[in-house]
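Sanity check. The docking grid for 6-diazenyl-5-OXO-L-norleucine depends on where the pocket ends up, so I'm generating a full predicted complex first rather than guessing from homology. Inputs follow.
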Amino acid sequence: MDYQSLIEEVHHEVEVMGLRGQLANYIPELSLVDPNQFGICLVDCKGNIYGTGDYQKSFSIQSISKVFTLTMAFSVMKDIFRKRVNVEPSGNPFNSLVQLEQEDGIPRNPFINAGALVITDAIISQYPDPEKAIHNFIRSIACEVQIPVNPLVHQSELAHSSRNRALANFMKSFGNIDNSIDRIIEVYTYHCSLEMSCEQLAKAFLIYANDGHSVFCEDHILDGSSIKRINALMLTCGFYDEAGDFAYKVGLPGKSGVGGGVGAVLPGRFSIAVWSPELNTKGNSVKGIKALEILTDKLGVSLF
Ligand code: DON
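Predicted complex below; grid placement will be based on this.
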């Protein structure tokens, strides 16, 4: 398969469509990025890397980091699933509060902000230096050392975290939060502010396509049954209230972030990362989703 020509073709086709969206201005620092950037990187299970456009430029991974904290949780504290975080799609926006009241402070899934905050809380309880543990874990699955945190984005998120604080406080009132709200918000916004390129993200996502193994550094990160479950969660919950639409158009497990990144996998074949900062009304990259739709249509492959 000539993946290089394929992604170049897809990049070009999407570029000429002139699709537009909005930058994530509720985190002011994210509204300062150049909206015209667009990169694609595909990594196959043999470790071949194919890239086009801005695929080596770093961007804010935002909610894509939730896949990595979830993966950490799967490695060391599987018991929190169902007890503290559920595994059902929410059908609601990523920062919604509404279901929490009716469902006793147990978030629907680990990808909505409430669920990711519970995972962060559990990681804080488990590790003496949670920022370092998360950072090192992501570096180890990406087999990359250079994954910086952007201090300006981190500060910007911290200064605009009222809604996430509300979610965490509300869950605390149900007894589903152990650590201080300040500390949880600090660590959560830290992992959202990490920066990776499409190339680094596609390398990190390879473990979800390759039964928990990275081909870039000998590590076996996770067992196959955990990978199956993480992929199921990405497919059903990775795009919040657009998860059905993404499955319908693209047919792959994936995860988006409000920095405009999308990571996705075709198990047994490849991982792919697409980045373009302008978002649709659900907070997902407009060009990112279109590129993946065209790519899976052209390839004629998906999960289905
Ligand atoms: O907590 C937030 O709102 C952001 N740090 C992350 C949200 C996000 O990326 C949603 N994904 N599309």
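Relevant for the grid: Residues 62-63, 94-95, 113, 157, 164, 192, 256-258, 283-284 surround 6-diazenyl-5-OXO-L-norleucine (CB under 6 Å).
Also worth noting: The mean pLDDT is 96.
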